[in-house]
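Hi everyone,

Forwarding the result from last night's run.
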Amino acid sequence: MWFRRDLRLRDNPALHAAGEACADGVIPLFVIDPQLWKAAGAARQAYLLSSLRALDASLQGRLHVRYGKPADVLPEVARQSHASSVHIAADFGPYGRARDALVEAALTSIPLVRTGSAYAVSPGRVRKQDGSPYRVFTPFHRAWLEHGWRAPAPHGHEHFVAVAGGDALPAAPELPDGLTLPAAGEAAAWARWERFRELDLGGYGSQRDRADLSATSEMSQHLRWGEIHPRSLLHELSPDDTTFRKELCWREFYADVLLHEPDSARVSLDTRFDSMPWAEGAQADEAYARWTQGLTGFPFVDAGMRQLQAEAWMHNRVRMVVASFLVKDLHLPWQLGARWFMQQLRDADLASNAHGWQWVAGCGTDAAPFHRVFNPVLQGLKFDPHGDYVRRYVPELRHLPGAGVHEPWNCVDGYALGYPERTLDHGVERQVALEDYATLRTSRAR
């Protein structure tokens, strides 16, 4: 069993298939692919290592770890252990599909068996009546619900076999000062889910946008690494949990889009946007650097960017606000922000990240109109009405009470502790963005 984005034993169809295929035992294998490992940021590397240690513990120390190119490692392990088959969950990402094809060819006579995927409904399954893929979420969501999904896979009693010759896990990377990561692994995922289901699921629809409240599930990293399967969560939802069910569907929609448009990880689906008159030069570089460090002078934006530094995670509503600020206030391409998020987030998922950014930038599927520009002050006042979120992550503003924290320029002592002044006028930059967009409207869309 070649584990990848399915670091769990429960509800694991590929693992169940492996156990059914061979009563002599299953070799649990994880390959540290140097190409993926080097592309991950320190937080993602650290979280993965923690999750692998948890998986190894659940396997009583039998997880076989190897470092190298999968197309080299898999045939070697399979032949040395006289494996009759290699089992995986299907990967639908651009790199994963190409990698698995190389592994399948290298295995020659040993079959590579794909069972299940990281999704309740595998990408490519939900299509329009004419067979074409969906490009808008709402009809996809309706079709996804109609398609439905299987019940969780049975929890087998696989006999795991330890083999010699494995590699040690890499040393944990040095994390930035102050960065803390949550517990990883299957048990941690289920514990987090049970807390959320008991305390916050009922109010999720009305509270999920409140950045100052702990009202979201924070299941994203557990889903990203497959420590829990989305089908397991769907199985536990009631008919009334429509908002959370829809959020799980967004994840599946974006995976489907990436399957059919693999270049959309880097290129705007509406390619006109890649020729926008983006800001360039030293001033643009400085603006980008201040954005990454949470020093723009707009408290709600800066709180979000500092939450990313402190937790390798950010509240979803705030992700939209900081993305809008980068694209429409700083006039920088969404790809810069998407790349930064992929490097920093512990839950970094290529499909959800790229298409979430494209949604905000107005150039993706089901995109919000470009002229919808988030006002960073009004967003803060609405979704952090008492200022608690900003004060949590921006210590220079903790002396300001209540909602006044969102407008330190209106407070006599707003800058007393060294918080930076605003680097731009939002009203002016909003107008610039709309004028830039107007230059594209006569261009021919793809």
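The longest strand covers residues 112-117.

Cheers,
N.
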